[in-house]
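Discussion board: Methods & Data

I've been asked by a reviewer to show the raw model output for two of the constructs in my manuscript, not just the figures. I'm not sure how much to include, so I'm pasting the format here to get opinions. Each protein appears as its amino acid sequence followed by a line of discrete structure tokens. Is this the kind of thing reviewers expect to see in a supplement, or should I convert it first? Here is construct A:
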Amino acid sequence: MHRVRKAVRENKLSLNTKIHEETYVPYLETIGRGWVLEEDGVIVAFAIGEHQTGNIWALFVHEDHEGKGYGSKVQEPMIEWLFAQGLDRIHLTTGANTRAQGFYAATGWTFTGIDPHGDAAFERLRPSV
């Protein structure tokens, strides 16, 4: 997953960012859950959501596999799972004026503004049954 995260063209990790391979462990084992999409046994897309806060911690597609619908394929089960945990609202931030911002707008997220860090903020509310 970290290989995919480091390969993106936008929303790159800065040298000061303290996200390393071991950073993923609590998000996958205690405070959240993750989904991956593989091709030939290699992870090409992944998504991780926090069930306690409703925050989407990560959703990335390796640049060599963009445009194949993989973002949606890892996003949808994550969203369903988060709402199944009893959350009424889930949220995320992404770089402003990026392709990711367009992706979230196109896949049902509501833009809520620019956060204090200059990132685009989005939310989704639990669907009515």
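Construct B, same format:
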Amino acid sequence: MKSVNIQNKRARFEFHLLDKFVAGIQLSGTEIKSIRLGKANITDSFCNFKGDELFVTGMQIEEYKFGTHSNHLPKRDRKLLLNRQELDKLRKKLKDVGLTIVPLKLFITEKGWAKMEISLAKGKKLFDKRDDLKQKDLKRDIDRASK
């Protein structure tokens, strides 16, 4: 069975990651089949509270190729499954200015469940992003020189 590991590389560049959580996703119909084929995108997605529940917004799961008329909507909001203590902790931390919840990774567990790694994050300033790019270039040059 092919391992599914869909990453949000942009999140690590755009945000300082503070706390990480692993949440289940409430899926419907053919969504899990599309995820197993790797047909999902979490780059432009984010998480927000609606009432007492946490939802991921902007996550795109392509329609299943062999689905029928009961195929799913590609960009609907999907409920994240966390326990009450984790939800309360996230809600309390979100009251701080400048914090948000971003998805980092979408993966399939050994049992076949779809899970999402999410993180409480604080947005980076422009100079932080430049620093990251400089560090990356430096590391690349050092690796080239060592070969």
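Answer (T.O., handling editor elsewhere):
This is acceptable in a supplement if you add a one-line summary per construct. For B, something like: The beta strands are 5-7, 15-25, 40-41, 46-50, 53-57, 60-61, 78-81, 99-108, 114-123.
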